[in-house]
Amino acid sequence: MRILSLLLLTLFIATGCCSQKKTNMATTQIEYSALSRGYYKKIVVQNQTVYVTNGRDQQPIETKIDDAKWNKIVAEFSKVDLNKLSALKAPTEKRFYDGAAIGNLKITQDQKTYETAGFDNGFPPKEIEKLVNLLVDFAKE
């Protein structure tokens, strides 16, 4: 009986922690932008919805994210260390001579904003590469 109650308590606590993380993800906003003189793209993901803006004077296009893609985003997001986001180094420097648009990843969670330094669009830092590529895929659809 004691083992059974301990097992149930453990299961209850584990379930509570998982649902708390999902609720936390529901209030998280992930924003990727790529800018240059003649190029503008902004992708905002929040609560299983994506907003894609393809021009400076354009209205965002809203699309629902299916569960499979959302789970991939959540999995990649959980690997990102938000406190180290601003210290990530860009692997290339094409943006310095207009060889690439300036990419930027901004994450807002619990009223705190975490932001990367600028990096070349298409060449994000390795630590956030998979997450950024998942976000950019929405603009291709």
Give the topology, please.
Elements: H1 2-26, E1 29-35, E2 40-46, E3 49-53, E4 61-64, H2 67-78, E5 102-109, E6 112-115, E7 119-120, H3 129-140
Antiparallel strand pairs: 1-2, 1-5, 2-3, 3-4, 5-6, 5-7
Helix pairs in contact: 2-3
Q: Given the C-alpha coordinates, what overall shape results?
A: globular
Strands, count? 7
* Structural class computed from helices and strand pairing: alpha+beta
Low-confidence stretches: 18-23
Estimate what percentage of residues fall within beta strands: 25-35%
What is the averaged pLDDT score? 86
Radius of gyration, Cα only, in angstroms?
18 Å
Largest sheet: 7 strands, antiparallel
Q: First CA to last CA: what distance?
A: 55 Å
The succession of helices and strands, N to C, reads HEEEEHEEEH
Count of runs of 4 or more consecutive helical residues:
3
Helix content: 25-40%
